[in-house]
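Q: Sequence in, structure out?
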Amino acid sequence: MSVFVLLSGHFLFFMYAFHAAISIRYWFAIDIAIRYRYRSYPAFPIASSDI
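A: Exactly. Output:
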């Protein structure tokens, strides 16, 4: 029984790490798209990088 709990714990951890990696990739894609769209406004990238 303890082996099953250990495996399920590892499974949950890997699922959490996988979800975190997707979220980080998703936010990086949004940030790049915003910088690309508003690159003609010089103040916007500075403000977004300060956040």
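The mean pLDDT is 72.
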